[in-house]
Amino acid sequence: MTGWIAVDWGTSNLRAWGMEGDAPVWEVATAEGMSTLDPEGFEPALLAAVGDRLDGPTDVFACGMAGSRQGWAEAPYVPVPAPPGSGDAAVPPVSDPRLRVRILPGLSQADPPDVMRGEETQIAGLLAREPEFDGAVCLPGTHSKWAHVSAGEVVSFRTAMTGELFALLKSSTLRHSLGEWEEAPFLDAVSEAMSRPERIVTDLFRIRAAHLLDGDGTGTSRLSGLLVGAELAATRPWWLGRPVALIGAEKVRDAYAAALRAQGVPVMPHDAATATLRGLAAARTAMAG
């Protein structure tokens, strides 16, 4: 039996968990992310993933890109400052009577313009565990988010396209000069980019030149370090003088933790899936009244 279903619906993937109370009892993941579906395709994709687990009418609480304008049903953004996980959920039309779906809204910021979908649920999960947290939250990924959290609210946030730029540049002329990731050259490149972020467009080509002239095999480390360093330089107002909660998948989270610790920043790592489930469970409890 499944009490309810938690769903994190990203651009590239769908992850769903069967929940009993606040505890997951099963998990399934597919590659049917938002980018592969039209609005009519979301219900069939969800049923393909979880349909054999449905014994009757089941509540489904979803966060992420299912609530985008190109998703299943648009869940309007809640402007900051606001508690993460607040606002009205979208209720998409369904044909299968076993599904009772609610899609959580994201957050928006007017000046400078910015939006997030999905990450706010992870921040809500952090606050469910640490309700007195006051500081910065970093959520590294394809589009890294930096949020200032205080008094239970997201006060402001910024997005950095670091992960997407890394993926694009890995397919550029630099693809001939990459190798295995290593922490030491990564941190060296972070330091370089933070001290001279205006030179990143020229420092990037040094990766190619160093490989051609010296056989340097640290291209992957230097590429990621230069981009993360430029991100840290741009987001200094969010992390300087504040504790930073890092929420993400282990590999990318550990890289950001090393970069921040090298700047003397206290870092508290958190698992992304765990934070997501806590945030969805908190939203379910709040909506139940």
TrEMBL record:
InterPro entries, per database record: DGOK, DGOK_C, DGOK_N
Pfam family, any one: DGOK
GO molecular function, one term: 2-dehydro-3-deoxygalactonokinase activity
Coiled coil: none
Gene3D superfamilies the record matches: 2-keto-3-deoxy-galactonokinase, C-terminal domain, 2-keto-3-deoxy-galactonokinase, substrate binding domain
Domain of life where this protein originates: Bacteria
Annotated keywords: Kinase, Transferase
GO biological process per UniProt: D-galactonate catabolic process
Record's signal peptide: none
The protein, known as: 2-keto-3-deoxygalactonate kinase
